Amino acid sequence: MKFPLSFALIALALAVSLGTVAAHAQSTMDVNTSGTANATYDPFTSNAGPYPFSNFGVAVSASLGGNNVDLALGGDTSFVLPAFTFGQVLLPTISNVNVGYTPGWTGSLTATSNFSANATFQANIGPFSASDNLFSQNLNAVANGNLASGGNLTGGSASGSDNGSLFHYTYTASALVASASASINVGANYQNSLNWNPTTQYGMYSWLGTAPNQGPTGTALFTTGSGGAVNYTVQDFGNGSVGTQVYLNFEPGVNFSMAVTPSSALSTPITGNLSAEAFGDTLANYTFPIATPFNLPLNYGEWDVNGQWNSGFAFSVPVLEESGQGSGGTCLDPGANCLEFVVDGAISQFANPFPTSGPSNLTGGTDFGSWGPGVNGAPLLPDACDPATGTCYASNDPNMPVGTATQSSTLTPVTAPEPGGWPLLAMSLGAIIFVGRRKKTLVIG
Predict the structure, then answer these.
(1) Torsion angle of C-alpha atoms 43, 49, 50, 54, degrees rounded to 10
(2) Whole-angstrom Cα distance, residue 209 to residue 237?
(3) What is the CA angle 196-152-250, rounded to 5?
(4) Considering only CA atoms, which of 334, 355, 158 is closest in space to residue 263?
């Protein structure tokens, strides 16, 4: 039997139309996860010393100009939407649909800070008095961390450091029955560090609409997944009415949180020796250990940064509410009033921009720290006793009768040693050439 051409075209068009309605192929939606944030921590200042004696040793002051942590996030997460077919039955609280997702994060975390450090040598022993600057240095350290690996956010740590110049300092003082000397090397090192631990949630917002392209009139349900998929159970959205046309709406979303903990440490490595005598007795013979005692660890309050994103578009499944008992069947879910959703149309998309929030900033973050133990509150040198009279004098008494005093000091830059070279530097002090000599004279009346 032959049909007119016009009839054949109509039949072909109807078949294509039915095929479109009968099946909805899987499609994708992307959630862009870009954003930037910054944490600013308060400045910090602290002083230590003089050490090892409060009237004969080294004092250090340090000032943090603030610590800035910058977060940059990028990339997107691709969600694979499920396929629905015309006539498909979805039972509330029973039917599941699977939504796959593939994260594609990029991200970096950078901490930048500036530490200024100052060191002085101070002596106040009887008639000997000195206060000489050893160094004033600005140290800048940047810690860079990569947050993503294979498209996933990962925890980790990063650090950056800056080493200041080294200086050699000598001090000599003498009187008739007293003397003092110092030969030390001193420098400054700074390390800036970061630790972070992210948490991510991938999920689907869902709500029931009574009209096409309708956003949620209340709070949308957010269902999260794991292992690259969201296993969504069709919800019971409340009492319905058989024969009512409604719309199941879904929208992908991503939630993000991350704990960031910066830290810093300033150290002033010192090597060398201090000695002092009066009336024939040794008041001090102290050798500085390497890399201590001036160590200032600085901790910062944790930065809890959060953000959430969504696709900005929802996909909508038109369904007809029908009786779950069908033709004499058994109600599978009495709690849902025996209603079921039957897909009865083509899937559509519409713009639905949920409120989003990029990563959160932090200003005026707290910081706290202290110098290594013992460098503050160091004791005076021991008293000096004149054997001729039996009178004892506090080591910082300027009236100590030791005779006319002279003193001099030098400060010389030192070529920085290779890593681990502090012990070698301490052994080679005798080979250093001194320049810039200056002299001071004190006369005891």
Answers:
(1) 140
(2) 10
(3) 115
(4) 158
Nearest residue to 429 via CA among 254, 226, 230, 183? 183
Whole-angstrom Cα distance, residue 187 to residue 137?
9
- Phi/psi for 234 (5° steps) reads -60, 130
Closest by Cα among 202, 201, 64 to 139: 64
98-149 tens-digit pLDDT: 999 999 999 999 999 999 999 999 999 999 999 999 999 999 999 999 999 9
Amino acid 212 reads P
CB 167, CB 425: distance < 8 Å = no
214 CB-near residues (< 8 Å, 6+ apart)? 247, 249
Q: 429: closest CA among 275, 271, 274? A: 271
Report which of 148, 77, 141, 76 is spatially closest to residue 108, judged by C-alpha positions: 148
Structure tokens given for 248: 């199941």
Tokens found for residue 279: 């009336």
Q: Are 426 and 194 in contact (CB under 8 A)?
A: no
Q: Give the chain's end-to-end CA distance (angstroms, integer).
A: 138
Per the structure block, which two tokens stand in for 220?
């949308």
Q: What would the two tokens of residue 193 be?
A: 């560090």
Q: Which of 173, 107, 103, 163 is nearest to 135 (CA)?
A: 163
Neighbouring CB atoms inside 10 A of 37's CB total 21
Q: Cα Rg for the chain, rounded, in angstroms?
A: 38
* Closest C-alpha to 370, from 267, 295, 262: 295
pTM over 0.85: no
Please give the helix or strand (H or E) that residue 200 lies within, else none: strand 189-209
Question: Could you tell me the two tokens for 402?
Answer: 């030791």
